Amino acid sequence: MNSFMKRKAAVCVLLVGWMLGACTGDFDDINTDPNATSKASSALLATTVTGNLIKWDLWISVANDGMRSKIICDTEGAQAAQYNLLGRGTFEGYNLLVTADKMVENANPAFVDAYRGLALFFKAFKMYYTTMQMGDIPYSEAALAEKEGVIKPGYDAQKEVFRQILDDLDAANSYFAAATAPFSGDVCFDGDPKKWQRVTNSFALKVLIALSKRADDTPELNVKGRFAEVASRPLLESGDDNLRFECRNQPGMYPPYYRISNQSWMYLRMSSVMLDILKKHGDYRLFYYAEPSEYWQAQGISVSDTACYPGINPAWNNTDIERLTGERKTCRINARYLDDPSGGEPIARVGFAQQEFILAEGALRGWLPGQTASQHYLKGIEAGLRFTAAHTPDDPLFHHNRQITDAYIAQHLRKASLQLSENPADFDADLQKIIEQKFAASFLQYKYDPFYDNRRTGWPVYPIDPATNQNELVDRMPIRWMYPMEEATQNTEHYQEALDRQFNGIDDHNVHMWLTK
């Protein structure tokens, strides 16, 4: 805001204050419509809640997520996200919990089940990603300031947070199942409670697989039994069921990487971590995700040849990355992302392909009796291929003459390099394939999830160079974000209790939380 606008705003504030002070004591009575409600409608609040679930963040946040997950790299400078500096997490997920509660309080009894389900899903979704970042967090006392005067909530132990998340998702499933009519205000599924039920159960599987390291020592959570039970409920049936943001060709709805919105995406390049997985299996998504190198095209290499798509090792020194980029020996993300204002693939938060890879891992771990890992794993690969192809214009400029067709998909799914052994002796090799294929289907999708999969399983391998790593321990990836500074200054007692309980009193990027031990 320039100085003129600031002065204008200040004058307006003074005028408003003078007018309010000059009014009589009958102002409220005179200006209150006795026939109007003073409460926001559940529909209006649901629009806020559902919109928040699928919104994409500022372009720099989307870029940082891609760099942190080793999907893309920056060529303009040594970005902290690319070089493994996590910084502090955020408690932004708490901001709308009261809004979600009010949505339920104000609901017409005919629709209250659906609104209850949505409120519970919203809380579980937001708190899952908050605890995944930092560890212990407020849950049982969250959003109780208005109801019970709790303005400095205590932190629940992370195991207890996960228990409450899973219980809330169970309850949300039941409420959505009981809902009999569409509810108003939903920007995702036009108020269809059955679609929300599928999303809720798919998300519950994500939460449960995140507990894989603690499945054997937490009988009270019943991770394995719960996984099988949730898998028997209604789940996502295709990419059309995804919880997603649909980009559009209009201001405010452009995709975050559209060049008209922000030119900086021109300087982002493809990571070798992503490209090497695609090249290993002759995966045509390589040609849909990436743009060929100008240098290798000039050397006569076809844009249909994988050799025209060199990836950047995200651990390389940024000076070397800048030099290679200046020599045009690196490749951008596909031009369709930059040039198509409709944005290519919708941006998923909970998705069908991801769900199938989670089910595949669960089956591999023996959590789905009678089901094989391969049946879900191959379905996940197919879903990822179809999702990309369905949202890309049939134009050689965008698939570089390597079009994903039904015939290609059938041939690709038969490749020997992709098949799982499903022999217990080959568990690690099979898990690597599942997580790598899940990663391949996560291109600019599923905020933070690839990073969390790497933290949990070690796959895909993230390269580390002590000379460039900005983590305090330069020989490894960091484990967690530190808590927001506001907690240290405004909720000091409970913040310190959480640190003492988990990390010997120190807020540190490199100490294990309960989940990761």
Structural features:
two-stranded antiparallel sheet, 517 residues, mainly alpha, disordered N terminus, two-stranded antiparallel ribbon, single chain
Run of helices and strands: HHHHEHHHHHHEEHHHHHEHHHHHHHH
**Secondary-structure-derived class:** mainly alpha
The end-to-end distance, rounded to whole angstroms, is 48 Å
Structure annotation, total helices: 23
Strand order, largest beta sheet: 1-3
**Largest pleated sheet:** 2 strands, antiparallel
> What coarse outline follows from CA principal-axis ratios?
globular
Quantity of strands, as a count? 4
Helicity level: 40-55%
Mean pLDDT reading: 90
Radius of gyration: 25 Å
- Low-pLDDT runs of 5+ residues are 1-36
Strand content: under 5%
Overview of the structural elements:
- The chain is mainly alpha-helical and 517 residues long.
- Helices cover 48% and strands 3% of the residues.
- It contains 23 helices and 4 strands.
- The strands form 2 sheets. The protein has a two-stranded antiparallel sheet. A two-stranded antiparallel sheet has the order 2-4.
- α3 packs parallel to α6 (112-134).
- The longest helix is centred in the first third of the chain and has 23 residues, at 112-134.
- 45% of the residues are buried.
